[in-house]
Design brief:
The chain folds into two domains: about 190 residues, D-Maltodextrin-Binding Protein, domain 2 (3-Layer(aba) Sandwich), CATH 3.40.190; about 210 residues, 3-Layer(aba) Sandwich (D-Maltodextrin-Binding Protein, domain 2), CATH 3.40.190.10. It has 18 helices and twelve strands. A hairpin with a 2-residue loop joins strand 4 and strand 5. Helix 10 crosses helix 18 and helix 17 packs antiparallel against helix 18. The longest helix is centred in the N-terminal third of the chain and has 27 residues. The protein starts with a helix and ends in a 5-residue tail after the last helix.
């Protein structure tokens, strides 16, 4: 009996020790952790054409591709809502439609496009480009000139985000002006001047009358579509809006016919280079830099090359009836595409917003003419040579009318200008022909046009 009691005690002790050990193990054991919730992985495709870009903030930037690569890396590192891989693709301008429209519905479809409005505005009519008003804060809106926002809209919705721009104005040879007695129209200040329509006629007639043979008052060309926006702007000089409120060309008005007649008269009077219908804008550049053309075109990029030729030149706006003048603004900025993936679309919008809400990346605008007023002020000293263009921003106008088939419009427009310069039809006939030909190309686009909700 005694022996049995001893065995029972030993068993109880062993059980007590085991239970105590088990208790200690349970108390010291850390609770199992649930696996950390993994973020969704999203690949964002950002595309940009071969496009020159310089930045005062970073001298390693020489094109938009290099810039986008830097933005992409910074965006990936800071983004919290998903694991994002930004794929930046550069394409040749000749391959643009293939890289944009041709990639719809594939893994290579564009989420964000960074390029010139001149081309990308047509993609709005595919129904894939989304309005971006939802990411435009009051700070972003107020930092960019209203004129740039207007150039970014269709039907009051903002489909493009302006980043920087290149502004084209007229340039004039100061020495040739002084040579023929036009000193009063010459400014020694680095500004964009504005001459009235009457002043412009006086300038052209005086130049034609007094310049030596083979030196011409003003550029004109009809060989191809290059530089057509400048000719379109000249067709606004007598009060025509060129486009009506529905985005169609409207030249068969008294103002439009008057402008067509003016161009025809300028040609007959010898204001344009001989056989202008068979030369192109680059030919006029050569004439201007050789001292054989008094009035040409310039912008912040052309300024540098013209200066190398030692031509002493000034800037002036294209003429207008209201006396304010016109310039042509070639904006570069962002566009976002809907590829039927809600999360991917959200990240694409966040990518664009990231650029505009961060001074570090917004500042990269400085180098070209920044659309941001804040950036323009911050780099005012460095942008001193471009201040004349910054201050002239209100003179820009929408020279494409946001036509869905702008390249087709260009293809027919220059051929009509060539015929105008031949001078075989009346101004009324040419105004109607330009209107009909351009509108036929525009209508083809609107028949297929779809705008994203």
């Amino acid at each position: 009996m005694k022996k049995q009691m001893t065995i029972i005690v030993i068993v109880l002790v062993i059980l007590s020790v085991s239970l105590l050990g088990l208790k200690q193990i349970l108390e010291n054991k850390k609770p199992e952790t649930t696996p950390k919730e993994e973020k969704e992985s999203i690949t964002l495709v950002v595309k940009t054409p071969v496009l020159q870009m310089t930045s005062l903030k970073d001298n390693t930037i020489n094109d938009t591709y290099t810039y986008m690569k830097k933005v992409a890396q910074a965006f990936e590192e800071q983004y919290k809502d998903a694991n994002v891989n930004v794929k930046v693709v550069q394409f040749a301008k000749a391959d643009e439609d293939e890289q944009i429209i041709g990639c719809f519905g594939t893994e290579q479809a564009t989420d964000v496009l960074f390029e010139e409005y001149f081309n990308m505005s047509t993609y709005i009519h595919t129904g894939k480009v989304v309005p971006l008003d939802g990411i435009i804060t009051e700070d972003i809106k107020n930092d960019i000139d209203d004129n740039y926002w207007e150039l970014s809209k269709i039907n009051e919705k903002t489909y493009m985000m302006p980043y920087f721009n290149m502004q084209n104005t007229l340039s004039y040879n100061k020495d040739l002006f002084r040579q023929v007695g036009l000193e009063k129209y010459v400014s020694d200040e680095d500004v964009v001047q504005t001459w009235s329509v009457q002043d412009f006629e006086t300038i052209l007639s005086t130049l034609q009358k007094n310049l030596p043979e083979n030196i011409y008052p003003m550029m004109m060309y009809g060989k191809n579509e290059m530089g057509d926006t400048h000719v379109i702007t000249l067709l606004r000089s007598r009060g025509s809006t060129f486009f009506d409120e529905n985005g169609r060309v409207k030249l068969t008005t008294p103002e439009g016919i008057s402008a067509v007649q003016w161009l025809m008269d300028c040609n007959k009077k010898g204001y344009f280079p001989a056989n202008a219908e068979n030369i192109e804008i680059n030919d006029c550049y050569n004439l201007f830099t050789n001292g054989q053309l008094a009035i040409y075109i310039t912008n912040a990029v052309l300024d540098e090359s013209i200066k190398e030729t030692n031509v002493n030149y000034g800037n002036a706006n294209f003429p207008s009836m209201d006396g304010k003048g016109f310039s042509t603004n070639f904006l570069t900025g962002f566009e976002v595409f809907d590829n039927d993936d809600e999360e991917r679309l959200k990240v694409a919008k966040d990518f664009v917003k990231f650029v505009y809400e961060n001074d570090e990346w917004n500042d990269y605008q400085a180098g070209a003419i920044p659309c941001s007023q804040k950036v323009a002020e911050k780099f005012a000293k460095e942008l001193e040579g471009k201040q004349k263009y910054i201050e002239n921003s209100q003179t820009g106008w929408n020279f494409t009318g946001n036509a869905p088939t702008w390249r087709k419009v260009r293809d027919v427009f220059y051929k009509d200008i060539k015929e105008l310069l031949y001078g075989e039809k009346t101004a009324e006939e040419m105004a109607k022909q330009i209107e009909d030909d351009c509108n036929q190309a525009i209508e083809e686009g609107y028949e297929k046009s779809i705008l994203h909700d």
